[in-house]
Automatic annotation (TrEMBL):
GO terms for molecular function: mRNA binding; translation initiation factor activity. It comes from Protea cynaroides. Residues 31-101 form the SUI1 domain. GO terms for biological process: regulation of translation. NCBIfam families: SUI1_MOF2. Keywords: Protein biosynthesis, Translation regulation. This is SUI1 domain-containing protein. Probably involved in translation. Belongs to the SUI1 family. InterPro entries: SUI1, SUI1_dom_sf, SUI1_euk.
Length: 113
């Protein structure tokens, strides 16, 4: 028997196609609104997953005027652009995004406490 006759079994993942389909339609489809506790009573609200077609700075400007809070747009290497607002603005941001027609209500996921 020569070395060419021996077949080495290769690893086969039967769920590779299913995982590939789920990853493209998974988290990128949703807009995630989270709250992060800073120190004491201070908190920070983050919004990620908005489409890249939108102007993040204009959305931030309207959010800051509407809710009388400060905020910024942060560029993250993994998540892309993330909007950060002072305070716990989860419900306010979600209703604002729906009323402005930016996102449908089914596509918003609110995380936190």
């Amino acid at each position: 028997m020569s070395e060419l006759d021996i077949q080495i079994p290769t690893t086969f993942d039967p769920f590779a196609e299913a995982n590939a389909d789920d990853s493209s339609a998974g988290t990128k489809e949703y807009v995630h609104v989270r709250v992060q506790q800073r120190n004491g009573r201070k908190s920070l609200t983050t919004v990620q997953g908005l489409k890249k077609d939108f102007s993040y700075n204009k959305i931030l400007k309207d959010l800051k005027k509407e809710f009388c809070c400060n905020g910024t747009v942060v560029q993250d290497s993994e998540l892309g652009q993330v909007i950060q607002l002072q305070g716990d603005q989860r419900k306010n941001v979600s209703t604002f995004l729906v009323q402005a027609g930016i996102v449908k209500k089914e596509r918003i996921k609110i995380h936190g406490f």
